[in-house]
Amino acid sequence: MYRMAILAMCTSDASLDIPKCVLMCVVHDLAEAQVGDITPSEGISKEEKRRLESEAMHSFVHDMLHGSEAALKIEALWREYEEQQTKEARFVKDLDRLEMALQAREYEEEHCKYLQDFFDSSLPLLRHDEVREWGEALDRERRGA
Fold first, then answer.
1. How far, in Å, CA of 84 to CA of 120, rounded?
2. d(Cα 114, Cα 1) in Å, to the nearest integer?
3. Which CATH superfamily is domain 1-144 in?
4. 19-55 pLDDT, tens per residue?
5. 105 to each of 24, 113, 118, 122, 131, how far by Cα in Å?
6. Per-domain residue ranges for the chain?
């Protein structure tokens, strides 16, 4: 989330609400603190994953933070990200995908492993022009081009 927030601040896209994007980067995976990072290989349906994460956010916002104004703002940002209806949410989703590829590249270099699946499941899905350019640059660097 930290690298995503920094990347959000690096964009040249003036049409985005950058402070909102940075905040969304910080809260987008908050539910995973309780439910863990559920991957497709675990066989849990998308619906069940959504339910578990919604329950975790509800607990965080209402039980731990007592539905405070700040908690409700966190929840609204998380829901906006989950619903993917705004350009900011779609941009942050692309940053999440790019960050996964960046992390995979670091693991490849550190552990001498080939993690093509991570690149195949992230880079082709990038929609934001600038983030796609960053992903293409990563791919070129990875291929030694």
1. 21
2. 24
3. Hypothetical protein af1432 (1.10.3210.10)
4. 999 999 999 999 988 998 887 778 889 899 999 999 9
5. 24, 9, 9, 12, 16
6. 1-144
